[in-house]
Every structure is written in C-alpha cells, then in structure tokens.
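$ ./design --mode recover --in tokens.txt
reading tokens...
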C-alpha cells in the first residue's frame, strides 16, 4: 500500500488550522485520519477510528489531559477537528480498574467527561485508545488484514507468522470495555510492540507522532497485502464469451416451469421434473 504522507500537505493543513486556533498535533491528527479514511481498502465508510492525547481547557478555564478520539457519525475521509471530541483522560484510565462496565455505562462515562457536552458520542473503542499510552493511535479494518484474521478459529498461528513479534495478538472480543482491558493487558505484557492485531476485527498501530503511527499502519497493511497476494489461489476461471447473445426464442424454453432444459437434465441425470413439488405460483 502506498504511503500518502506528504510533508508539504501536512504543514499546509497545520498552517490553515493554526489560523483557526487548532493546535499542531490535532491538525496532524486530522491529516492522517483523512489519509486513512480516504483509502477504501483500510476503512469501510464510517469505520475505523483514530485518537490523539492532548490538553484542553473547559468552559471555566480549567486545563485537563484529554483524549481526542473519532466521534460517532464522522467519516474519517473528511473529518474536521470537531469530529474528534475531547474526553477527560483521567476518568477513562480509572475505569480500567473496574471488573465490568456495560455498554450503556461506558457511553455515560464518556459523555459525562466530554470537554464540550455538545460533542458527538466518542467511539465505542475510546477506552482502548485511552488505555494505550502512546500519543497517537490509529485503527483500521484493513481488507488485507481481515483476509488473514478471518481464517477460521485457528488464526492465531497465521497472524503471528505473518506479522511477527512486533505486533501483539488479541483474541476476538466484542468491541467495548472487555476488549479494551484485554488489549491493554496484552500490550503491557510486551510494551515494545508497534501495534495490535485484533482477531476477526482489524489492526491498531501507535506512536508518539502522527507520521510514525501512520507509517506503521501502512507498513503492516502492506505486509498483509503481500502475504495475501503470494498465498491466494486465483479463484476465477477464464471463460470465452459468446460472439452474440441468444435471442428471446432461445431463452424462453429455459424460463418455463417445465422446460426443455429440465427435460434435458432429466435425460442426462435421471432426475424427474414431475417428482419435484411445483410452487403454487407455477399454477397461477
């Protein structure tokens, strides 16, 4: 997969948003989110999510460490800064000590800690982004990665073979609190990993800069694409199209309930058209 990062484009966006009071790291978060969201092989429409950890000021002037994470309903390919609502980070991190957290309570926790209460709901994977310590976190549903992680119940060995030791393996868990905790625990076992492969789900990469996190995503998706290309048999069988289409008189018999096509099949296979119960619609 081609790496689309361009320093000139990144700096131009930083400058444009800087005039509107948007800080550099948030502008770069918007830039790489658009790069990811504009590539159909990485994210389905509205799928995937990204985040950046910053500091923000609330309405009364208090400063907070926050997680700016993709909001529900925003298309990554055309996202704006307001599509990455800021959530107070400390309460999110505190939630990791809980034994369980329902989806409803998780949404309530996230909304209760929005810097701007009018912001969209943060992503269902907000806690996973929060529990990872890196500044920038990228997540996609890469088609090539899914082609590998969706290989039945025994995909772990294949995942480890393809991606190697620098990518952590996370067994399938429904997105939400339980997945966030499991992914964080796997990361804690080996903080040297550059990303996580989520079985039957997708891929996370993370780094301290927007460019590094994006570069890692493109690198590991390319690894997946290369493996799929080299290990997938071509299921398509070439055929020769007829020089001319059949006319209606030739097609009509094959569309009838008791057609000459059925008679021919019966003669060659021993199958009897009269032994098959006719749908009522045939008699109408």
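writing sequence...
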């Amino acid at each position: 997969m081609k790496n689309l990062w361009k320093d000139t484009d990144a700096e131009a966006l930083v400058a444009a948003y800087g005039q509107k009071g948007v800080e550099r790291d948030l502008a770069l978060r918007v830039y790489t989110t658009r790069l990811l969201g504009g590539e159909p092989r990485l994210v389905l429409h509205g799928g995937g999510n990204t985040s950046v950890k910053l500091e923000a000021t609330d309405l009364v002037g208090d400063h907070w460490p926050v997680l700016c994470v993709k909001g529900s309903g925003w298309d990554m390919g055309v996202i704006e800064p307001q599509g990455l609502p800021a959530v107070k980070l400390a309460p999110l991190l505190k939630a990791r000590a809980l034994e369980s957290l329902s989806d409803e309570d998780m949404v309530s926790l996230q909304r209760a800690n929005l810097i701007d209460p009018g912001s969209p709901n943060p992503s269902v994977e907000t806690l996973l982004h929060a529990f990872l310590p890196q500044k920038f976190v990228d997540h996609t549903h890469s088609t090539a990665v899914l082609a590998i992680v969706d290989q039945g119940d025994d995909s772990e060995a294949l995942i480890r073979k393809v991606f190697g030791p620098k990518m952590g393996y996370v067994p399938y868990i429904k997105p939400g609190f339980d997945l966030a905790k499991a992914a964080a625990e796997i990361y804690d076992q080996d903080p040297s990993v550059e990303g996580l492969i989520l079985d039957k789900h997708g891929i996370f990469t993370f780094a301290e800069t927007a460019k590094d996190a994006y570069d890692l995503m493109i690198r590991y998706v390319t690894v997946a694409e290369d493996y799929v290309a080299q290990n997938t048999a071509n299921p398509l069988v070439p055929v020769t199209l007829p020089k001319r289409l059949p006319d209606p008189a030739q097609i009509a018999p094959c569309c009838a309930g008791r057609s000459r096509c059925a008679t021919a099949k019966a003669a060659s296979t021993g199958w009897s058209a009269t032994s098959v119960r006719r749908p009522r619609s045939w008699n109408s």
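exit 0
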